[in-house]
Amino acid sequence: MPDVTITSAAAFIPEIWANAALLELRANMVLSQLVTKDTDVASFVRGDILHIPVPGTFVANDKVANTAVQLQVPSDGEVTVTLNKHKEASVLIEDIAKAQSSQDLMSRYVRHMVRPIAEAIEKDLFSLYASLTTTGGVGATDLTGTSIRAARKLLNDNKVPLENRSFVLSTKDEISLLGDTTLQSFFAFSQPEAVQEGRIGRVYGFDIYVSQLAPFSTNQKNLAFSPEFAILAMRGLPMNEAPNVQQLTIQDPKSGLVLRQTVSYSPNFLGVQVTIDVLYGFSVLRNLAGVLMIS
């Protein structure tokens, strides 16, 4: 078999590995797909600061017959997001031809490369719980249907829109909710998949999700929120024009996630190096749109 070079590897790597990595990234993320996103494939570097505009407040005026409407000029605000997170995962593949020919082997490479990147982004977004001023729940007490209703009231009192609300539970609180006797009849008749597959679905106006990365510090942290609670900003990274280096920046049209893939031949190790990296920043967007539910 002829020696593998970056030229012979190029046809396969950009088209298949990058797209597989995006799908794997999306599959391993919960919070990242539920918050507000601001993404662009344009090149940025670590440390760049984004200025995200936030619309000001409008009021409803009485319309008086035969008079003009009252024009409003709300004072817009902004949220600054620093692109200070650059995460990468790299692998050296000596037998690239074998990896290319085996879908299962390629999937294993991609899965193990992307998963730690996905977890890093999720953990960063979860860390925003410390900024929330609206809290509920009781420490060392599992969440129940009553807890879900309490979170709903807190968001209602904060005048958060009723649509697109999510509740991300820890693994222990998911099990508690599945066993809640007050919800068992509802699950049995309206959402049998909760009993069959352990998939809760929608309860009390929330889409319910579970995350293995829900943080625990003194007590368990769960989040109830609308998308405007937080923002995840992702940007493309610069392209390297060095010889025998091939790069590709790709954006997932469904989740908005952006990653860069770099492929180069290493003469020292006689293999193809594949690196997947992401550049992002995150911030609370509207504090009152999120509720920390402890348990």
Describe this structure in words.
By secondary structure, this protein is an alpha+beta fold. The chain folds into two domains: 6-54 and 78-127 and 231-282; 128-230 and 288-294, hypothetical protein PF0899 fold (2-Layer Sandwich), CATH 3.30.2320. The chain has helices spanning 6-10, 13-27, 31-34, 96-101, 103-126, 145-157, 171-178, 181-189, 193-196; strands spanning 36-43, 49-54, 77-82, 85-93, 135-137, 166-169, 201-203, 206-210, 216-217, 219-225, 230-236, 245-251, 258-266, 271-284, 290-294. The strands form three sheets. Strands 5, 6, 7, 8, 9, 10 and 15 form a seven-stranded mixed sheet that branches. A hairpin with a 6-residue loop joins β12 and β13 (258-266). α2 crosses α5 (103-126). The chain is globular. It starts with 5 loop residues before the first helix and ends with a strand.
Attribute tags:
295 residues; alpha+beta; hypothetical protein PF0899 fold; seven-stranded mixed β-sheet; six-stranded mixed β-sheet; 9 helices; 15 strands; 30% helix
In short:
With 295 residues, the chain is of the alpha+beta class. It is 30% helix and 32% strand. It folds into two domains: 151 residues; 110 residues, hypothetical protein PF0899 fold, CATH 3.30.2320.
Please state the structural category: alpha+beta
Overall geometry comes to globular
| Major beta sheet summary | 7 strands, mixed
**H and E string:** HHHEEEEHHEHEHHHEEEEEEEEE
Catalogue the unreliable spans.
9-13
Mean pLDDT: 87
Count of beta strands: 15
- Straight-line N-to-C gap: 59 Å
Strand content: 25-35%
Q: Estimate nothing, just give the exact number of structural domains.
A: 2
Helix count from the secondary structure assignment:
9
CA gyration radius, whole angstroms = 23 Å
* Percent helix: 25-40%
